[in-house]
């Protein structure tokens, strides 16, 4: 399968996205923000649909909408206490954005075919410009995590103590949600807007379920994300079943095995 250029691009894209998804996803699960990852990927669908309507690359529209939504979610953190209305706000924005995305596709006269591509991904259609864009997003996000890593970990585990020690908790949360939004946009290129969170949540949840420390947990989450995406591509090649199916099924299976190991 590596004789074909589209498969080479697919594996490169999956590698870039998996490293990003495993790293960002670990912090998302640690901070109990799995629903935010779910919402960001769906909100990105509306941005991608709007980009199709305007005649530009869907990836850029997805990044723009996800980034705005991520900043809005991050601003809901008031000091160390999350707003009790946070989940309600996320749900309402999610519902409105999906309706907006449907309208964008309707105006673009591409509701049937393009909706399938945006919602379920087209990893085999990744070209070189998209690979370069994904590389840029990954470098930006990972560089941001290197800068935010220590205060983010401190604020995630002991928010009260972190605030007392002078850590800018709200600013840290804002920066991280911007990184998470970019990561969700990148993941949607591989598994689509509907299942992008499976690549971010599954490996990270498995690593944390096993009780691994920060370094071991991050490495395990990245390794599992690579295993799921590469395995999904190989199985899709052999069975002609879409890649997102294997990624979602594999994520659930990995977490189930982690639960059995802990027991």
Automatic annotation (TrEMBL):
Q: Please give the superkingdom of this protein's source.
A: Bacteria
Q: Which keywords belong to this entry?
A: Membrane, Transmembrane, Transmembrane helix, Transport
InterPro entries assigned to the protein according to its UniProt record, in alphabetical order: ABC_BtuC-like, ABC_TroCD
- The protein in question is named ABC transporter permease
Membrane topology label = Multi-pass membrane protein
Record flagged with keyword Kinase: no
Q: Which Pfam families match?
A: ABC-3
Organism of this sequence:
Gluconobacter japonicus
Transmembrane stretches in the record are 6-30, 42-68, 88-105, 131-154, 174-200, 212-237, 243-261
Q: Which family does it belong to?
A: Belongs to the ABC-3 integral membrane protein family.
Cellular compartments annotated: Cell membrane; Membrane
């Amino acid at each position: 399968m590596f004789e074909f250029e589209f498969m080479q691009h697919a594996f490169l894209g999956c590698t870039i996205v998996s490293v990003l998804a495993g790293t960002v996803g670990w912090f998302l699960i640690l901070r109990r923000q799995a629903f935010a990852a779910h919402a960001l990927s769906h909100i990105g669908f509306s941005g991608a649909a709007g980009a199709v309507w305007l005649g530009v690359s869907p990836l850029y529209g997805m990044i723009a909408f996800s980034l705005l939504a991520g900043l809005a979610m991050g601003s809901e953190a008031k000091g160390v206490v999350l707003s009790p209305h946070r989940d309600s706000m996320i749900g309402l924005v999610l519902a409105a954005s999906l309706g907006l995305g449907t309208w964008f596709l309707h105006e673009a006269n591409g509701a049937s075919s393009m909706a399938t591509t945006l919602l379920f991904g087209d990893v085999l259609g990744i070209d070189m410009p998209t690979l370069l864009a994904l590389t840029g997003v990954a470098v930006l996000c990972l560089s941001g995590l290197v800068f935010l890593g220590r205060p983010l970990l401190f604020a995630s585990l002991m928010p009260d103590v972190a605030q007392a020690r002078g850590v800018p908790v709200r600013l840290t949360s804002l920066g991280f949600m911007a990184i998470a939004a970019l990561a969700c946009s990148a993941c949607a290129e591989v598994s689509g807007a509907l299942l992008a969170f499976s690549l971010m949540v599954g490996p990270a949840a498995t690593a944390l379920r096993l009780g691994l420390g920060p370094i071991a947990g991050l490495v395990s989450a990245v390794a599992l994300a690579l295993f799921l995406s590469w395995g999904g591509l190989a199985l899709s090649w052999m069975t002609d079943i879409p890649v997102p199916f294997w990624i979602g099924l594999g994520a659930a299976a990995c977490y189930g095995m982690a639960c059995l190991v802990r027991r």
